[in-house]
Amino acid sequence: MADHYEVLGVARDASADDIKRAYRRLARELHPDVNPGADAAERFKLVTHAYDVLSDPDQRRRYDMGGDQSPFGGAGGAAGFGGFSDIFETFFGGGAGGPRGGRPRSRRERGQDALVRVDLELGDVVFGTHRDLEVDTAVLCETCQGSCCQPGTSEVTCDICHGTGNIQRTVRSLLGNVVTTQPCATCQGHGTTIPYPCATCQGQGRVRARRTVSVDIPAGVETGLRLQLPGSGEVGPAGGPNGDLYLEITVAPHEIFSRDGDDLLATLEVSMPDAILGTSATIQALDGGVELEVRPGVQSGDVLTIKGRGITPLRGSQRGDLRVGVHVVTPTRLDHKERALIEEFAKRTKAPAPQLAQFHQGLFAKLRDRFRNA
Ligand code: ZN
User: Fold this and answer.
1) Domain for residue 236, yes or no?
2) Structural domain of residue 219, as residue ranges?
3) Which of 69, 216, 308, 337 is deepest in the core (most CB within 10 A)?
4) What's the sign of the alpha-carbon dihedral 289, 295, 296, 298?
């Protein structure tokens, strides 16, 4: 780095006034608004930095003793830009537009959240299930362990912003000169640069990889639900903390069972003779066989409730019920003998003529609506 006295063109024993005068002259000459060349901008930064150091008695003394080259480290930084407002009026004190910008921005940031879609069958929902999910996210770079540097090297203080992460710019306006602060383009506002970036991750501290995440999916989830796995998302830049992983659940429609809260719904088709005489049957629920008693004389629309054979709720342990709506199936094709038997039956029972009764909004209507709306 160039000698601060040489940069300002003053002797080593120059007085504070000499230094200030030299800086004013150079600043007017090299200021980016007057002299837009890149070379001038670089010299302007150097001049400003030299002035910042030499105008502060403490920093000047340390500099003379060959000490701290980075005047912005520690408490000295606060006074570092004092000289700036001596020359340029500042209308926006403090904050982003003030003469001192924010602190250097850490490379380490929290990683992004990741979203994975999980397709389940209704049967998975009854008790919950386990999934090994393939997730493509950024993971920590094994080579540099998130340091972003080749092993054995480390980041160094940025030469341009001297570790502040910010560059001052003075803009002329009708009100006078306004000092604005912008992130240093050389170090992207980090205050440090990486001379030897890790070759594995190109200095990002992380690489993209496919990994397997083992997840226990609780019972009772439903389509559209998002399960949050804290800390299982992407690792952040430079080994920053992981984001979260979200599982978005989709439960495929089942060809027989539908869901009403924690209850399962299905239809039981019963032949006409069975409906008349009653029967027993084993039906296959989602979690195995269920013995069902159909009482003699069961009617279409009757609902048989099998307690505790529904879905385990997401919160709680009391399983819902399996509700089965009876549908009596009327035979449609009879041979001569069968037809004769039914006619004989009708004669014997003196079956009444069709007659009106109150409209019955039964389970089937509800089921139909449900399917229609699905
Ligand atoms: Zn790396």
Assistant:
1) yes
2) 111-155+194-252
3) 69
4) negative
Pair 132, 241 in one domain: yes
Q: Which CATH number is 15's domain given? A: 1.10.287.110
CA 238 – CA 221 distance, rounded (Å): 36
Tell how far the Cα of 140 is from the centroid of ligand 1, in angstroms. Answer: 8
> Which tens digits make up the pLDDT trace of 183-228?
899 999 999 999 999 999 999 999 999 999 999 999 999 999 999 9
d(CA 51, CA 116) in angstroms, rounded, equals 55
Burial class of residue 84 in the structure, from the number of CB atoms within 10 Å of its CB (0-12 exposed, 13-18 middle, 19+ buried): buried
Residue 270: burial class (beta carbons within 10 Å; 0-12, 13-18, 19+): buried
The amino acid present at 334, given as its one-letter code, is: L
Q: What is the mean pLDDT of the chain?
A: 84
Pairing of strands 114-120, 245-251: parallel
The SS3 call for residue 302 is coil
Residues near ion ligand 1 (Cβ under 5 Å): 141, 143-144, 198, 200-201
Ligand 1 centre to CA of 214 (Å) is 26
Q: How far is it, in rounded angstroms, from Cα 206 to Cα 192?
A: 18
CA–CA dist 268, 328 (Å, integer): 8
R_g over Cα of the chain: 40
**DSSP conformation class of 189:** T
161 CA → ligand 1 middle, Å? 25
